[in-house]
Amino acid sequence: MKWSRLLSLLASFLVTALFVLAWKLVADYKLVSPVFLPGPDRAWTSLVRGFTTGDLGVKFLATVERMFWGWLIASLIGVALGAAIGTSPKLRAYLAPMLEFLRPLPASATIPVAIAVLGLSDGMVLAVIAFGALWPVLLATIHGFAAVEPRLYEVGRALRLSRATVIAKIALPSASPDILAGMRLGLTVALILSVVCEMIAGRDGLGNWILLAARSFRAPDLYAGVILLGLLGYFTAIAIGLLEARLLVWRSRAR
Amino acid sequence: MNTSNDAAIVFDRVSLAYGGRPIISDLSLDVGRGEIVCIIGPSGCGKTTALRMAGGLVRPLDGTVRVLGEPLTEPRRDVAIVFQDYGKALLPWRTAAANVSLALEAAGTPRSERPERIRTLLAKVGLASHEDKYPTEMSGGMQQRIQIARCLAQDPAVLLMDEPFGALDAMTRQGLQDEMLSIVAETGATVFFVTHDLEEAVYLGDRVIGLLPNPGRIGIDLKVDLPRPRDQLETREMPEFLRLRRTLFDFIEKAEA
């Protein structure tokens, strides 16, 4: 068990190393022009320089902050709305068609509307991120609450639990695996929208950094930004995975 | 019908229909305090529906259900319901102890008193060393024991049991039957026990009531005069046990015909 985990970890490192090596070879032999594809060494140097002498750290934090707040707002609204809709079959019937219509709209398509209404402000960016990240959370929460075992509601009735207690002690924990899965997806959407908004609305952040680097042919800087985005996505996914493992112990302990 | 205030559960000319189809029609039945009444009958006779009405989960269209002298309009905490599908009636994200705790939380038992009571209750149902296990880590019999412990945590005057041992294997079932009888003897609770197992009904009950289907009504009301405490081997070999079993068997055969 322990050995096989170690082995798979080793294998995944190996695959990553091979990928970087392939990248290096392609760059070294100039299969792609170095103007467009710098080697990993140059990208790395640029990344380090960005953090030590440049303002990459500030931009990185700006993006993280934007993503986090947008995601948090989306999660809070999504869970609250989803709980209300999911626990009421009537509301579900009324709202489902509209939700299905709004859901597949690409969130970036709302950016022009948001700019028109809210202007080129940080509030607009936050609104767009929250709007986009809302859907996965909302829909997963609705499903989670709608799928609560009816028998458990009867147990709640037999024990004369209040509506609030039923939601807190029965419905919410029961829906928590779905909610966390939705929040995981929402986080990805939040990251994407943070970057897109920064590019379109010119807010300071990694998205803007990448766009400016591309426009001025600073390819190593561009790749440094992309690597940073990848790392950000990777580590937030790990963080939420840890949260899941902690909150859903009962699932992993099942026989 | 004599509807004395002494009875634990009184069905007084109760009727119920779903979408125009009568489920129970004009049912009158008294269950005395401390009595163990077993309900049998072919499927569709409304025995589970009757239990749900006694639990306040379903309200009759006509007539009244009284529990401990009061008309029932909603569930009461001193009436505990043991569901057949223990796997669905337990909270899978809570350990055995925390599942029992739910009933104490509902009753507003002070936090400091809960661990002690939970330990006592789990010990009573034979789960003393399994407090921290999740339901999914336990066998069906153990899961049903958690549910029984949670119901006992309600300090119930009335226990409504809906085929609680129906999904368990024979050995586990017999063990739980005896445990239930000794717990009930200790607490003096009234038991309304729905089952499809005729022998189980005779073995457990002070009375066995057979319902007829379409619509549900009483077809037979048998007094069980078997000595207590009952014994899985001796009781089941008594001529009276066999006679009652035969009577019920004939009843069911006719009811299903």
Model description:
- The complex is a heterodimer of chains A (255) and B (257).
- Chain A has one domain: MetI-like (MetI-like fold, Orthogonal Bundle).
- Helix content of chain A is 82%, strand content 0%.
- Chain A contains eleven helices and no strands.
- Chain B is an alpha/beta fold and 257 residues long.
- Helix content of chain B is 37%, strand content 24%.
- Chain B has helices at 47-54, 86-89, 96-107, 114-124, 140-152, 170-187, 198-204, 234-237, 239-256; strands at residues 9-18, 21-31, 36-40, 62-67, 70-71, 79-82, 158-162, 190-194, 207-212, 217-223.
- A six-stranded mixed sheet of chain B has the order 6-7-8-3-9-10, with helices on both faces. In chain B, strands 2-1-4-5 form a four-stranded antiparallel sheet, with helices on one face.
- The mean pLDDT of chain B is 92.
- The chains are: A mainly alpha (255), B alpha/beta (257).
- The interface between A and B is medium-sized, with 22 and 26 residues.
Short note summarizing the structure:
The complex is a heterodimer of chains A (255) and B (257). Chain A has 255 residues and is mostly helical.
Share of helical residues of chain B: 25-40%
Proper CATH architecture of chain A? Orthogonal Bundle
Largest sheet of chain A: none
The CATH topology assignment of the largest domain in chain B is: Rossmann fold
- N-to-C series of helices and strands of chain B: EEEHEEEHHHHEHEHEEHH
- Net shape of chain B: globular
SSE-based structural type of chain A: mainly alpha
CATH superfamily of the largest domain in chain B, please? P-loop containing nucleotide triphosphate hydrolases
Family (chain B): Belongs to the ABC transporter superfamily.
Keywords (chain B): ATP-binding, Nucleotide-binding, Transport
InterPro entries (chain B): AAA+_ATPase, ABC_transporter-like_ATP-bd, ABC_transporter-like_CS, ABC_transporter_ATP-bind, P-loop_NTPase
GO molecular function (chain B): ATP binding; ATP hydrolysis activity
